[in-house]
Amino acid sequence: MRKYVGERIQKLREAQGLSQQEVCKLAGLELSRLQAYEEGTAVPSVGVVIKLSRILGSRFEGLMHGGGTVSDALTICRAGTSFAGQQGNTEQGYAYGTLTRPGTVGHVMEPFMLTFDPRVPRGEPISHDGQEFVYVVEGAIELLYDGRTYRLEQGDSVYLDASRSHRFHGLGESPARMLAVVSS
């Protein structure tokens, strides 16, 4: 899936007649990061995908999953088949998998399962359009939100305005898992 997101980023950028430098300036990205996304050697975080989708004139789910082919009225994803591919570690310090079927049009929310390795260095805070609901499934997670730090434990949940600066990071000795539902 990593390669396909990068290919869609590149195709949309080229279709808009934008250079990599122009997109980087608009998104606040380093050129080397955008190049790595397009080449499939790095994974953009959910927030970066949201920013790029706005800049490139696409909906978030279009950039993540490609063109829509599934009804938006009801989508059932059975256990073991619901992930549309696991994304490797992002610059925000987590790996993620989508919890909905690729190609579903009309979704306002996108659910993800994020896994945080506490040994990975903390990423830079990010902000993007939309809102997020998160639920800590396993372990402990640090939330830096709008300059304040919060410790989240298993069973804790947070609803936040994603346009404010935020970052999540795993705590402890073993990976932490968090359900995140993002509107864009």
Your description of this structure?
Residues 9-63 form the HTH cro/C1-type domain. One of its GO terms (cellular component) is cytosol. It comes from Geothermobacter hydrogeniphilus. By secondary structure, the chain is an alpha+beta fold. The chain has two domains: 2-65, 434 Repressor (Amino-terminal Domain); 86-183, Jelly Rolls (Sandwich), CATH 2.60.120. It has five helices and nine strands. It is globular, with a radius of gyration of 16 Å.
Write the layout of secondary structure elements.
Layout: H1 2-15, H2 20-27, H3 31-39, H4 46-55, H5 60-65, E1 86-87, E2 94-98, E3 109-116, E4 131-138, E5 140-145, E6 148-153, E7 157-161, E8 166-171, E9 176-183
Antiparallel strand pairs: 1-2, 2-3, 3-9, 4-7, 4-9, 5-6, 5-8
Helix pairs in contact: 1-3
GO molecular function: DNA binding; DNA-binding transcription factor activity
Keywords: DNA-binding
InterPro entries: Cro/C1-type_HTH (IPR001387), Cupin_2 (IPR013096), Lambda_DNA-bd_dom_sf (IPR010982), RmlC-like_jellyroll (IPR014710), RmlC_Cupin_sf (IPR011051), TransReg_Diox_bact_type (IPR050807)
Number of domains: 2
Strand order of the largest sheet: 1-2-3-9-4-7
Structural class: alpha+beta
CATH topology annotation of the largest domain: Jelly Rolls
Provide the CATH superfamily of the largest domain. Jelly Rolls
How much of the sequence lies in strands comes to: 25-35%
Q: What's the number of helices?
A: 5
What is the C-level CATH assignment of the largest domain?
Answer: Mainly Beta
User: Outline, from the CA principal axes?
Assistant: globular
Radius of gyration: 16 Å
